[in-house]
Amino acid sequence: MNLSNDGQRLAPQWAEIGNNICGTLHACRDASALAERFVRVGWSSRSSSWHAYEVETSWCQMEIEPIEGADVLLNGIVDPSRVDELAELLDRWGLKYSLELYDKDGFMVREIPT
Fold first, then answer.
1. CATH fold for the domain made of 12-113
2. Are 46 and 9 in contact (CB under 8 A)?
3. What Å distances lie between residue 26 and 17, 67, 73, CA to CA?
4. Is residue 56 a contact partner of residue 10, using CB atoms and an 8 Å limit?
5. Model confidence over 65-80: pLDDT tens digits?
6. Burial letters for 64-86: b for 16+ Cβ neighbours within 10 Å, e otherwise?
7. I need a surface site. Which of 32, 51, 109, 111 has the fewest CB within 10 A?
């Protein structure tokens, strides 16, 4: 997979809020192919372990990590006002997923299942 540093970096105001998004991509086995999809739409991507990647744009930064079986975990930071944009991107790719958005105190404020 081609890694890319060409995308935008996470805006500083979002880095300060800490992790607020987590989710699972169901029946998605290849984190590398998923990272490649993010790169194709202008995000940056870098390897974060043997099989995991970090993807990033100005409003979102996530770790994508395969787990045993056929799922990929997502966790990181998203501008809460753009969580629907993230869901729409996953929808466009035809992925089955569940996302959870948390507030600054760690309480789940929204769940987005497919």
1. TATA-Binding Protein (3.30.310)
2. no
3. 27, 11, 9
4. yes
5. 998 877 999 999 999 9
6. bbbeeeebbbbebbbbbeebeeb
7. 111
